[in-house]
């Protein structure tokens, strides 16, 4: 039992560790203006893929470990008796397979990812516009006598 609980703890930790890389990958792959839309689409896909085929797949894995099925008029009903050791092994193997598939897909995405080329307007240096000194900046609406008055001092 302690070995199972330790393994379960590790699996749960890795499950939660995958959520941040998925979020980061989504945010890095789309332009800034489409990030909220991309996160919405990501959650729709995650909920759809996890909510529909997931229970069906695990249900079939659980059904494999059934020892005695209910029989109603020649039709198979629900399971009366499960082989607990087989069910635990099958669900563990299925969980490991799904985690390995997820890890493989993350690794493939990591290898195939090519960051977009940085545009000259998005870099920090491009906002400088070559102005080296404050005196080089264009000034509008200077007073006629050339003296700048602190407007807050008059209040």
UniProtKB/TrEMBL annotation:
<dbReference type="InterPro" id="IPR004156">
    <property type="entry name" value="OATP"/>
</dbReference>
<dbReference type="InterPro" id="IPR036259">
    <property type="entry name" value="MFS_trans_sf"/>
</dbReference>
<keyword id="KW-0472">Membrane</keyword>
<keyword id="KW-1015">Disulfide bond</keyword>
<feature type="transmembrane region" description="Helical">
    <location>
        <begin position="50"/>
        <end position="69"/>
    </location>
</feature>
<dbReference type="GO" id="GO:0015347">
    <property type="term" value="F:sodium-independent organic anion transmembrane transporter activity"/>
</dbReference>
<protein>
    <recommendedName>
        <fullName>Solute carrier organic anion transporter family member 4A1</fullName>
    </recommendedName>
</protein>
<dbReference type="Pfam" id="PF03137">
    <property type="entry name" value="OATP"/>
</dbReference>
<feature type="signal peptide">
    <location>
        <begin position="1"/>
        <end position="25"/>
    </location>
</feature>
<keyword id="KW-0812">Transmembrane</keyword>
<dbReference type="GO" id="GO:0043252">
    <property type="term" value="P:sodium-independent organic anion transport"/>
</dbReference>
<dbReference type="GO" id="GO:0016323">
    <property type="term" value="C:basolateral plasma membrane"/>
</dbReference>
<keyword id="KW-0732">Signal</keyword>
<feature type="transmembrane region" description="Helical">
    <location>
        <begin position="90"/>
        <end position="113"/>
    </location>
</feature>
<keyword id="KW-1133">Transmembrane helix</keyword>
<feature type="region of interest" description="Disordered">
    <location>
        <begin position="119"/>
        <end position="140"/>
    </location>
</feature>
């Amino acid at each position: 039992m302690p070995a199972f609980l330790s393994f379960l703890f590790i699996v749960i930790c890795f499950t939660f560790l995958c959520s941040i890389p998925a979020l980061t990958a989504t945010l890095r792959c789309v332009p800034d203006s489409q990030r909220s839309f991309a996160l919405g689409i990501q959650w729709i896909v995650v909920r759809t893929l996890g909510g529909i085929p997931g229970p069906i797949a695990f249900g079939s894995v659980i059904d494999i470990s059934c020892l005695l099925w209910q029989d109603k008029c020649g039709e198979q009903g629900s399971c009366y008796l499960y082989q607990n050791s087989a069910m635990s092994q099958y669900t563990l193997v299925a969980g490991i397979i799904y985690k390995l598939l997820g890890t493989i897909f993350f690794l493939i995405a990591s290898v195939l990812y090519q960051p977009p080329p940085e545009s000259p307007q998005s870099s920090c240096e491009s906002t400088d516009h070559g102005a080296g000194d404050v005196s080089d900046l264009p000034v509008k609406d200077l007073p006629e006598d050339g003296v700048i008055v602190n407007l807050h001092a008059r209040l």
